[in-house]
Amino acid sequence: MVVPTLEDVSAILAAAELWMRPWVELMAFAGLRIGEATAVQASDIDFLKGRRLHVQRQIQNHDGERLVLPPKHGSERYVVLPDQLLNSLARHIETIGVQGSEGWLFNGAPPSPNGLRRWFEKTCVRAGVTGISPHDLRHFYASSLIDAGCDVVTVQKALGHSKASTTLDIYAHLMPQAADRTRKAAAAAMAAAAPADYLRTGHSSK
Length: 206
Description:
The chain has 206 residues and is mainly alpha-helical. It contains ten helices and five strands; from the N terminus they run αααβββββααααααα.
């Protein structure tokens, strides 16, 4: 597994053309697969109440055709979006516009994942970043959630894995060790429950 660094993602975004940045951001900051990010339509985005994205389709290139399909089994989901990403998507719709009557966000009606992948590869060359694929941005997103302390079920739901065990199989090596979590939890409980002078001296003044 390749997990891009923060510097990698920043360099790719800086080198990306304006129309392409939201596509990169949907994978890096919302965890979408390449086919899912390619298939986003403007109507999928709830900018106001929920501030989230409905991931309900993917696009695949197959034998020269672009197939619009449901997401992988168990992967239809709502992903909450950070305000910065919502703002980026809103600017994209306002300044770049959408494609076709369905309101595709990216070039084509429907867009081509293979075409966008080639644009991504060219962008990485300009950015001086090597060895990074679009799918690796999904790993970046997952590692960001784990670093922030999100539990396995939260990460599973955000990524659209059908089972928590799938998330563990892929990302267990990135998660804090159980012994470390147990020690920190017990230390926090002890600090909250024990009298301050007991923690300092081993004796209570009461």
